[in-house]
TrEMBL record:
Lineage, opening ranks: Eukaryota, Viridiplantae, Streptophyta, Embryophyta, Tracheophyta
Domain of life the protein comes from: Eukaryota
Magnesium recorded as keyword: no
Family annotation (InterPro entries): ATP-Sase_PUA-like_dom, PUA-like_sf
Name of the molecule in the record: ATP-sulfurylase PUA-like domain-containing protein
Pfam families: PUA_2
Keywords of this entry: ATP-binding, Nucleotide-binding, Transferase
Start and end residues of each ATP-sulfurylase PUA-like domain: 24-140
Pathway recorded for this protein: Sulfur metabolism
Length: 157
């Protein structure tokens, strides 16, 4: 039996095979990166100092990185309630154009009642690390209560 296989020509001999390499298209067809331009970075850091703050956990910081680098495209920030529910129930998101993208992991930011109370009066909040260094400025959007926590539904500025 081994001799039979050894004498057979390779499949590539019969096929004209062309191999191309490249990046796949991001979900939703557009990469959503959320970085501040270098020329505006210091201005935004100064702006963040005067805003109400939400201190991020290590896990929250990792989600901010995922969102800001576009790994969660087409999301432009933490999920809103309708996106969160679609993710939980359907493992996908339906976009405004009717297309559907895979999204099986909800990306939300949990906050407690005291944080929610502190930022309720502001339309923007600063996300800070454990040393109070500003990480991002977010437009305050919606939130909804889920037991003792609220999930903040905000978009990156």
């Amino acid at each position: 039996m081994p001799d039979l296989f050894a004498k057979m020509p390779l499949l590539s001999h019969f096929l004209n095979v062309r191999v191309e390499a490249g990046l796949i298209e991001p979900d939703g067809g557009k990469l959503v990166e959320l970085f501040v331009e270098d020329s505006k970075r210091n201005i935004k850091k100064q702006e963040a100092v005067s805003l109400p703050k939400i201190r991020l956990t290590k896990s929250d910081l990792q989600w901010v990185q995922v969102l800001s680098e576009g790994w969660a495209s087409p999301l432009g920030g933490f999920m809103r309630e309708f996106e969160f529910l679609q993710t939980l129930h359907f493992n996908s998101l339906r976009l405004g154009d009717g297309s559907v993208v895979n999204m099986s992991v909800p990306i939300v930011l949990a906050i407690d009642d005291s944080q929610k109370h502190n930022i309720r009066v502001s339309t923007r909040v600063a996300l800070v690390d454990s040393d109070d260094n500003p990480i991002a400025i977010l437009r305050w959007g919606w939130s909804w209560d889920q037991g003792s926590e609220s999930w903040i539904l905000i978009r990156f500025w």
